[in-house]
Each structure stands twice: as structure tokens, then as C-alpha cells.
Design a protein that fits this description.
- The complex is a heterotrimer.
- By secondary structure, chain A is of the alpha/beta class.
- Chain A contains five helices and three strands, in the order αβαβααβα.
- Chain A has a domain of 94 residues: Ribosomal protein L13 (Ribosomal Protein L13p, Chain: A, Alpha-Beta Complex), CATH 3.90.1180.10.
- A three-stranded parallel sheet of chain A has the order 2-1-3, with helices on one face.
- The longest helix of chain A has 13 residues.
- By secondary structure, chain B is an alpha/beta fold.
- Chain B has a domain of 114 residues: Glutaredoxin, CATH 3.40.30.
- Chain B has a four-stranded mixed sheet, with helices on one face. Chain B has a two-stranded parallel sheet with strand order 1-6.
- In chain B, α1 crosses α3.
- Chain B is rod-shaped, with a radius of gyration of 37 Å.
- Chain C is mainly alpha-helical.
- Helices cover 52% and strands 7% of the residues of chain C.
- Chain C is built from 17 helices and three strands.
- In chain C, α6 packs antiparallel against α11, α8 packs across α12 and α14 packs across α15.
- Chain C is flat.
- Classes of the chains: A alpha/beta, B alpha/beta, C mainly alpha.
- At the B-C interface, β2 and β3 of B face α5, α10, α12 and β1 of C.
- Chain C: Keywords: Mitochondrion, Ribonucleoprotein, Ribosomal protein, RNA-binding, Transit peptide.
- Chain C: It comes from Paralvinella palmiformis.
- Chain C: This is Large ribosomal subunit protein mL44.
């Protein structure tokens, strides 16, 4: 008897996944996340079967979007009701609470490659990177970092 | 809409019949007919020609004859699980009644319902029923989430920068070798 | 019905005799009325509810109906079960002592004399019970060689319980044939009658045939059943520890294999039980302690050879070919436990 109970508990267990949205396009990430929310990554999937999992999306503040879209995008939908405003895109800047972090049991792979910024390369790596030529001594490099605050 | 009105069920046997020996589920067969009416002609012919063959082949079935005046012909089959099935065979031919008797003999007493599955097993899984842990990489047990290495998109091919660095490393090693 | 559909012409004749006499009878007409009378519905509804109120028909034994031939039924029973019973043995096996008592009283009342030429089935019941007990245990010991004796006894108790044997008896067709004082025959009477039949087989045909009978009707009821549901192991972790110690392996270590939703109501944990860094068994549960217990039970299943995906029990040709050692008894679970655990 106990065996059947725990077997069902384990097979239909609701997992907690985490998705790092840094440098990811939300529209392209959505299919990957939806797959886990629906439970289609499980062999026990059925539309009437409540087999979906939780997905915690972190760093939503750092998503990649074209141009002004992070500010101007509206989720449009037609419900037929009057005067319903299309909601804005919302990002969250708070840290993930500890209780939720403790629940996590898996990570979803990102959908876009994250390019390595110039500041993420160490000095050694920059020096060692193959170059066709070297700059002359008196060449002034363009500023490669954030501008210093005006004093 | 009709799924809960029209009865349905699963494949079952009476007492694991067939796992050990198979026993015929028909317990008693009563043949009710009239000796004179036309409707019972098929039944009377069946009794004359085929009944004794049937009883010899199926000694485990008790056959009763009930001739009743001016009644329609019928077969009453009683099964081991207690069910009773009446089959009206008035105006049936001898061959038809023979077929019906064969059917009654080969049935189990269970009600004819729509079968939801044509199979039954008590051990549906040999390798164990799937859990989220089946086929899960055990390395994940020692990782703390969120993890950068798990998060990064896996590429089938290396990037142009990686290829460049590889090429550079090869050239450098060749150069150092030629120096030596 | 034909009669209700037509207005009967006779009423016209009786009331309208002047019309008849005056020659208007050349064209006889009948008017057809379709449907029921207005009082029909309420009358039959009343009949229906009154009958329901009186309760269901009392159950009668099958022998109360006219199409009943006891000798033929007895013969058919033997043939149906594909066994060569002698008529006297089979009739005796199905005669309960309460029936003989009832008959004696009846005959005394009717002043017919006290002699009832029937033998009851007490002796056959004893024979059958003993034989069944021996054979079922021997078969189980052969099929589950690693299972402790307590487990064997639990399964054997389940298979030979009154309810189980009565259910088997009912579906074989002996409930109509049993001669006993009460109706319907009680669970105890049914199970005794089945045991008596087995005893009769032993007497007539020998133990070999009776073994096949017990295999085919009683032991087949084990198909699809889980041994762990019949046999309760208290403190599986302790038992596992003793089993491991007996086999001289390292101590048991439980490790967490997987957890999800730890801070939620739907937390799931999977725990593995290791000895000498080898996985013995894994279990899942709502809490860590449940998962650990199920892991220990899983490991015990593997040790005792009662996993859920094991080979099926041998029946038919495989079952007939078995060479069972009746003297062998499995190790008791007490052999595994330490003195402190025994208390």
C-alpha cells in the first residue's frame, strides 16, 4: 500500500527548475520554459494530467531585447471586453528568496549563447590573443570601459 | 456524454482461470421449448441432432430440458460466477441455436461491457516506473543551483573565436618545435 | 394489447339493439383506440412501489427450482474440474455435519427412525487442511528460497484464509451442492467443503493429483499480489542492518539522491541505501524518513527475492515438473536479528 503511494508521489513529483535569463531573448526563451511548465519534457505527459513543473526565471532585468522594446513592448490580447489595457513587459530586480533557492532541483539550458564581454577576458588572455598587427606606440585607444563620473 | 451511461470495464477472469487449468465457466444450460409450436422447431431439431454431441464434449455442463406448452423457445445459461443469461431463440434455425449454444459455452459469466483496454497486467513495469530520477545524471547531485556550466547553451560546433585560438596554439607549438 | 385497442363491438349490440333490429348491422365497424387508459399509469406505478416496499425476494437455494438433478450436478462438478472424483467421496466431502443433525431431528419429528445414511466431511476436512498447508508452504519455500519463514507463513495464511477458500469454492460451483443446515452456506462451511474436496482427492487419487489441484486453484490466487503487502516488516532499517552484518558487508549509509521542492508541501525526496559504496536500494517519499524507510524496504525486497518485477510463479507444465523438497524450511528472520533487536 505504502509502495503505491510513494511511487505515485515520485512519478508525479513537481520539480523546480531555474532559468538564467541573462542575455536571453524572452520570446525565444519562452518555448523552452513553456515545455517545462506544461510537463512535455516528461514521458507521463497528458493534457489532462497536472504534470507541469515550476520554473524560476532569474536575472530577468538583464534580458536581451531589440532597441526600445524592453520599455515599449505591450502584451496585446483581444478578450472582447471594453477598455482592457495591454500590460507592459515587467522585469524583476529583487534577489531570489532563499526558500525558493532551496527548492531548486534542475537548470534549463539557455537558448542563446552569451557573448563574452571584453571585461570578462583577463589581461593574460588579452595579451595572448592572436593579433595580425600591434598598435604603434603613440596610438590612443578608444575608451573601452564605462565613462568615469564627471567631477 | 454516454461514457458513464453505457457500462464499461476492464478485462477480467474469474479466479485466475487459465493460469492454472482452464475450467468451462458454463455451469448449467436449460433448454425451454414447446413440443408442438413452429417457433420451437429449431430447438427441437437441435435437441434431436446436436444436443448429445454437445453433452459428450462438455461433461462439466449440466443440461436440463423443460418442455412447456405454448411457450417460446429459450436457452437459460447459468455461470459459475452466479450470473444467469437468457437467450430467446424462438423462430431460430437449428444452426443458429447451435451457434448460440457454442457462444454460451465459451463465455464467462461476466456482463458484456465495452472494454477500455484489451489487456491486463499486474506487473506493468519490469525496469521500474519512470520517476524524475530515472536517467538523471548523478553529477547533478553535487551541483548547487543556479549553476553556470549547466546553464550555458551547448553548441555542436566550436565558435569562430575558439577555432582561432586553437589555430594560434597549433602555430605557436609548430613554431616552438621548429626553433628546437 | 389487441383487446384494449379496440372498442368491443358487443357493447354496441347490447345497447343499440334497436339499430340491429332495424337493419343497420350490415356494416360492422370497429374503432381502434391507441394508447393506454388514463388509470393505467397510476395503477401500475402503485404496483411497482408496493412491490419495492415488500423488499427483494428471499434468496432460495438452487435446488428449490424444478430443473435440479443432484447426481448430475455432482458428476458435472468433477468433470468441470477435470478430476476423477468418486461419487461417494465427492458427496461426502460436500456434506456438512450440521445437515446430518438437521436430518436426524427431522426424521425424529416425522417418526421415521434415527438412522441417516450420510457421512459428514470432518475427516476429509482435516486431511485436506493438513495436505494443503504442507503443500502450499513447500511450494512457496521452493519458489521464494531467500524469503524468511515468517514471510512464507504470512503468504500461506493469506492463501488458506477462510475468505479466500470460500471465494474459490463459490466460483468453482460448490455453493449450490453443499448440504448444510444454514442457507446460504457460510464462509467457514464453504472453505471446509473445499478442504474436504482436497482431502477426498488425496484419498482417491493420491497426493500428486491433489498437488496439481492445490496449485491450480489456491496458489494461482498469488498471481499479481505483492508479498510485502501480506507480510509486515517492522523496522526495515534494523532488519537490513542485520542482513548486511550477517553477510559481512560494511555498515549501511543512506545518501540523498534527489530532492525537489524542499520548502513546499509537495516536497519529494529520493534516498539511496549504500553498503561498501554499493547501492542496495532506493526509495522515494514525501519526507526524508519515509524515503529512507522505503529505500530499506527496496533493499530487503532484493535480498529476499520478492521484487515487483521478478519471474512469475511456475504453473501448468512448469509447475508439474517441480521437484519440491518437503523437508526444507527457510531461515527465520530471527536468525538475522541481534539479541537487542529480538526484544
Amino acid at each position: 500500500m505504502a509502495h503505491h503511494r510513494v511511487q505515485q508521489w515520485a512519478t508525479f513529483a513537481r520539480q523546480w527548475w531555474v532559468y538564467d535569463a541573462t542575455w536571453q531573448c524572452p520570446f525565444r526563451s519562452a518555448p523552452a520554459i513553456i515545455k517545462h511548465l506544461q510537463g512535455k519534457h516528461k514521458p507521463i505527459y497528458h493534457p489532462t494530467n497536472d504534470c507541469g513543473d515550476h520554473v524560476v526565471v532569474i536575472n530577468s532585468k538583464h534580458i536581451a531585447m531589440e532597441g526600445d522594446l524592453w520599455r515599449t513592448f505591450k502584451y496585446s490580447h483581444h478578450t472582447g471586453g471594453k477598455d482592457s489595457e495591454d500590460p507592459d513587459l515587467e522585469t524583476f530586480s529583487e534577489n531570489v528568496p532563499d526558500e525558493i533557492l532551496k527548492n531548486l532541483s534542475g537548470q534549463i539550458q539557455q537558448v542563446m549563447t552569451v557573448p563574452k564581454g571584453i571585461h570578462e577576458y583577463t589581461e593574460e588572455e588579452k595579451a595572448e590573443f592572436p593579433a595580425l598587427f600591434d598598435w604603434p606606440q603613440d596610438h590612443i585607444m578608444m575608451r573601452s570601459g564605462p565613462s568615469k563620473p564627471k567631477q | 456524454m454516454s461514457h458513464h451511461i453505457i457500462p464499461s470495464g476492464f478485462v477480467r477472469t474469474v479466479l485466475q482461470n487459465g493460469v492454472g487449468r482452464h475450467i468451462c465457466q458454463l455451469q448449467r444450460l436449460t433448454l425451454k421449448f414447446c413440443k408442438s409450436t413452429v417457433g420451437s422447431k429449431g430447438m427441437r431439431d437441435f435437441i434431436e441432432n446436436n444436443l448429445l454431441d454437445f453433452t459428450r464434449k462438455n461433461p462439466g455442463v449440466v443440461v436440463y430440458l423443460q418442455p412447456r406448452r405454448h411457450r417460446t423457445a429459450r436457452l437459460v445459461a447459468e455461470y459459475l460466477n452466479g450470473d444467469v443469461h437468457q437467450q430467446y431463440v424462438n423462430n431460430f434455425s437449428e444452426e443458429e441455436i447451435h451457434e448460440w449454444v457454442k457462444l454460451l459455452r465459451s463465455q464467462s459469466g461476466q456482463k458484456a461491457v465495452r472494454l477500455r483496454k484489451y489487456w491486463h497486467t499486474d506487473n506493468p513495469s519490469i525496469q521500474g516506473i519512470w520517476t524524475p530520477m530515472t536517467n538523471r545524471d548523478t553529477e547533478l547531485n553535487i551541483k548547487a543551483f543556479p549553476d553556470k556550466s549547466l546553464s550555458a547553451k551547448l553548441l555542436e560546433e566550436s565558435t569562430a573565436s575558439e577555432k582561432l585560438l586553437q589555430k594560434a596554439a597549433e602555430l605557436r607549438s609548430k613554431a616552438s618545435q621548429s626553433e628546437n | 394489447m389487441a383487446q384494449s385497442g379496440y372498442r368491443i363491438l358487443s357493447c354496441f349490440y347490447k345497447t343499440n339493439s334497436r339499430l340491429l333490429n332495424s337493419g343497420f348491422t350490415d356494416h360492422v365497424f370497429v374503432t381502434q383506440v391507441r394508447g393506454r387508459k388514463r388509470w393505467h399509469r397510476s395503477l401500475y406505478k402503485a404496483f411497482y412501489w408496493r412491490r419495492i416496499e415488500q423488499g427483494p425476494e428471499p434468496e432460495r437455494p438452487r435446488s428449490a427450482w424444478i430443473n435440479w438433478n443432484y447426481d448430475a450436478e455432482i458428476f458435472a462438478l468433477g468433470q468441470r474440474l477435470k478430476e476423477d472424483f468418486t461419487e461417494t467421496t465427492l458427496k461426502r466431502a460436500l456434506t456438512h455435519s450440521s445437515y446430518i443433525q438437521k436430518e436426524k431431528v427431522l426424521r425424529k419429528d416425522l417418526e421415521m427412525g434415527d438412522e441417516v445414511h450420510l457421512e459428514d466431511n470432518c475427516e476429509l476436512v482435516k486431511k485436506g487442511e493438513e495436505f494443503t498447508n504442507d503443500y502450499v508452504k513447500a511450494y512457496l519455500r521452493h519458489s521464494f528460497p531467500a524469503l524468511p519463514e515468517e514471510g512464507i507463513c504470512s503468504i500461506s495464511e493469506y492463501l488458506q484464509s477462510d475468505e479466500m477458500l470460500a471465494e474459490i469454492g463459490r466460483n468453482i460451483g460448490i455453493k449450490d451442492l453443499i448440504l448444510c443446515a444454514e442457507f446460504p452456506p457460510s464462509t467457514a462451511t464453504l472453505s471446509q467443503s473445499l478442504k474436504a474436496m482436497i482431502g477426498g482427492l488425496v484419498q482417491d487419487q493420491g497426493s500428486h493429483t491433489a498437488e496439481h489441484f492445490v496449485q491450480d486453484f489456491i496458489i494461482t490466487m498469488m498471481v499479481g499480489k505483492d508479498v510485502m503487502e501480506m507480510w509486515e516488516i517492522v523496522n526495515p532499517m534494523g532488519v537490513l542492518q542485520s542482513v548486511i552484518q550477517k553477510q559481512q558487508h560494511g555498515d549501511i549509509e543512506s545518501r540523498l539522491l534527489y530532492e525537489t521542492g524542499a520548502n513546499t508541501v509537495l516536497a519529494t525526496y529520493m534516498v539511496g541505501v549504500y553498503s561498501d559504496k554499493k547501492l542496495l536500494g532506493k526509495g522515494y517519499g514525501e519526507t526524508l524518513s519515509i524515503a529512507e524507510e522505503m529505500a530499506a524496504r527496496d533493499a530487503l525486497r532484493k535480498f529476499f527475492g520478492i521484487t515487483l518485477n521478478q519471474e512469475p510463479l511456475p504453473f501448468n507444465e512448469d509447475g508439474h515438473r517441480l521437484e519440491i523438497d518437503h523437508r526444507k524450511i527457510n531461515a527465520s528472520i530471527k536468525d538475522y536479528l541481534t539479541p537487542s533487536q529480538l526484544q
